């Protein structure tokens, strides 16, 4: 049932593609027969246990008369006394999972100074800075591939050698103490912090990918690269992103994979992209 439903969705999309109403083509692949909850486990970023959709939005209150000037439920006995609360006690009550690493742990990159026109195209694969396409399997570890790929590019630009770095090293060792959740998702900045604090990441050859989180087995003797800093690009500024790709190198990025689950070829462009990753 799920498979047939997805096939029909692919066929409808591709008919629009044939009429030049879409810029990319879809195809049946290894994800086509997956249930939505199975696919969502592969999507990398840690999702909150409670979604807004778990609760219905309140209906608009019907207001037939003027509202009171003030309401004090303390006077009605509905509110207890103010209590002392330590910061760590308060933080436990804040509901959403707080990341162990804050954005302030890394400085935001200064806005790229653009003194001349940007190149029409930049392909770091042609320059030898990008390793081959890899397969994450049935594990929501895309954040480790994004982080390792960016480190591979920077290491290449520094040394002139392209070294495949270990996503499994990040998956195993940049754990919940860094705010990551293995195959349930994580953040690239958390991965970079691990590599920086660990003073290295192993090579893919010495620490191959397994597709599940296991015990950390980092070995300094197999170190393939190090990282000393990481910076965030300004949110939502595509010109700054273009400038960074052109001048800095391969950039670690995350995208919402929901609408490109069955992607085959073309330039992805959609105004229907949901907000959640």
From TrEMBL:
Top-rank lineage group of the source organism: Eukaryota
Keywords assigned: Disulfide bond, Hydrolase, Protease, Thiol protease, Zymogen
Annotated Gene3D superfamilies: Cysteine proteinases
Domain Peptidase C1A papain C-terminal: from-to ranges: 118-276
PROSITE patterns for this protein: THIOL_PROTEASE_CYS
Cathepsin propeptide inhibitor domain location: 1-39
One example of a Gene Ontology biological process annotation: proteolysis
Pfam families in UniProt: Inhibitor_I29, Peptidase_C1
Alphabetical list of InterPro entries matching this protein: Papain-like_cys_pep_sf, Pept_cys_AS, Peptidase_C1A, Peptidase_C1A_C, Peptidase_C1A_papain-like, Prot_inhib_I29
UniProt KW Acyltransferase keyword: no
Single GO molecular function: cysteine-type peptidase activity
Protease keyword on record: yes
Family under the similarity heading: Belongs to the peptidase C1 family.
Stated name of the protein: Uncharacterized protein
Lineage: Eukaryota, Metazoa, Ecdysozoa, Nematoda, Chromadorea
